[in-house]
Amino acid sequence: MKRQYPRYPIPAVSGVIVNNKTQILAVQRGTNPGKGQWSLPGGAVHLGEPVRDAVRREIREECGIEVSVTEILGVFDRIFRDRQGRVEYHYVLVSFLCRLEKGQPTAQSDAWAVRWVGREEIDAFEWTPGVKEFLEEILKRVKQK
User: Fold this and answer.
1) Does 111 fall in a domain?
2) Mean pLDDT, to the nearest integer, of 26-48?
3) What CATH code is carried by the domain that includes residue 139?
4) Considering the domain boundaries, does residue 2 fall inside one?
5) pTM, two decimal places
6) HEC profile of the chain
7) 33-37, 67-71, 79-83, 95-99: least confident range
8) Residue 63 lies in a domain
9) Residue 6 preceded by cis peptide, ω within 30
10) Assigned domain for 5 exists
11) What is the C-alpha to C-alpha distance for residues 98 and 69, in angstroms, rounded to an integer?
12) HSE on the CB side for 6, CA within 13 Å?
């Protein structure tokens, strides 16, 4: 299925990896949609691939680390329209809380950069639509646990 101007929404995943309950691992996107902006590691689910396997694979491909997947944090639409208002990209995104198991995060595949981002730094980054608000909510939830 083509990703740009798809006929149907594309199932996708993202992982929220929290460090010391104060930082979240972010990636700077190397491809569209959102090329150059910051987001969470993730991507499209492959045919026949369970979503939990997909999030582990995407994080390994983008960040070079191994994670365990703990819980679903939410399900979101990510719809990007072109200047004429046509749907250029549409992902149905399942976001999971993940725990770092092995490795040091380094930019891989389609990520330009990866880094830990603290609550106090969130406003300094240009995020893909909806991610900043989601991160603020997640950091509040994690801190309360």
Assistant:
1) yes
2) 93
3) 3.90.79.10
4) no
5) 0.89
6) CCCCCCCCCEEEEEEEEEECCCEEEEEEECCCCCCCCEECCEEECCCCCCHHHHHHHHHHHHHCCEEEEEEEEEEEEEEEECCCCCEEEEEEEEEEEEEEEECCCCCCCCEEEEEEEEHHHHHHCCECCCHHHHHHHHHHHHHHC
7) 33-37
8) yes
9) no
10) no
11) 4
12) 15
What token pair was written down for 4? 């740009």
pLDDT computed for residue 61 by the predictor: 95
Number of domains forming the structure of the chain: 1
| Amino acid letter for position 140 | K
Give the domain extent around 41: 10-144
The 10s digit of each residue's pLDDT in 46-59 is 999 999 999 999 99
Q: How confident is the model at residue 34 (pLDDT cuts 50, 70, 90)?
A: confident
